Amino acid sequence: MNSYPENSLVVQDLKVSFQETDGLLQVLDNVCFSLQKNEFACLIGPSGSGKSTLLRALAGLIPYESGSIEFPEVHGRKPRTGLVFQKANLMPWRTLEENIALPLQLAHTPQAEINKKVKEMVELTGLQGFEKSWPHELSGGMAQRVAIARSLVQDPDILFLDEPFGSLDELTRERMSEELLRIWNEKRKTILMVTHSIPEAVFLADRVLVLAGFPQGIVLDLPIDLPRPRDDELRYTPQFAQAAATLHEHLKL
Ligand SMILES: Nc1ncnc2c1ncn2[C@@H]1O[C@H](COP(=O)(O)OP(=O)(O)OP(=O)(O)O)[C@@H](O)[C@H]1O
Ligand SMILES: [Mg+2]
After folding, report:
1. With bands split at pLDDT 50, 70 and 90, how would you rate the model's confidence at 2?
2. What predicted TM-score, i.e. pTM, was given to this entire model?
3. Of 122, 155, 188, which closes a domain?
4. What does the alpha-carbon distance between residue 20 and residue 11 come to, in Å, rounded to a whole number?
5. Number of domains in the chain
6. Of the ligands numbered here, which is closest to the C-alpha atom of 23?
7. pLDDT the model gives residue 178
8. 61 lines ligand 1 (CB under 6 A)
9. Are residues 69 and 122 in the same domain?
10. Which ligand is nearest to the CA of 214?
11. Three-state SS annotation for 170-232
């Protein structure tokens, strides 16, 4: 457990501010952490502490003011990153399989390869039989699976997930967590996932990072030394409760 030898991402003294009409809004400062290759980390923190901002900066969608974000090379190339937002954001005029295919089409991938990869993703995310369905015909959980499949289809090395199960009911969330662990086991990626749920973070992660609001940065980096594979019974063990209690304490600060 937690014995991943290589860094996948190194963040140092990251600072992000937004220019507002009445001045500069400082959102992130002193953010330092690193992720190991193939590690599953969760990021929790109060609403407004800058979790989505951090993910967007890491994914290269917004600029940062100072500090550094480094992605060590994978097999001699720059690693690919993927980002899944809280809302699935599917294109309503595209079927399920066409939504998954979109990033490949944008990259001018040959059609035969697109078909092969989309089929693989549909199977990986358990969406068989719904390939021709339209987004409005899908449940929230299915739409989120499509969003995850769409980000995985480009085979990212690092996956950033921003509350991917935030809009789902408790039981669906738990099922999706187990699905995500299964996918991670099969595909082995570095994952950084934002969640508001302490039990979800403890259940999924090798490590949980707690982000406090400006200017504190990451105030806790907690290893979760629970055995894998993880199943539902783990949720009722004293070790699980202990980790959850520690996180709860730090979130109150
Ligand atoms: N594009 C933007 N322009 C200006 N301010 C922004 C922008 N994006 C985020 N902010 C501000 O940055 C702060 C952090 O927002 P962010 O969405 O990162 O928080 P969060 O931790 O993800 O919250 P939540 O848990 O509610 O999703 C908030 O004060 C927000 O208003
Ligand atoms: Mg957010």
Report:
1. very low
2. 0.93
3. 155
4. 25
5. 2
6. 1
7. 87
8. no
9. no
10. 1
11. HHHHHHHHHHHHHHHHHHCCEEEEECCCHHHHHHHCCEEEEEECCCCEEEEEEECCCCCCCCH
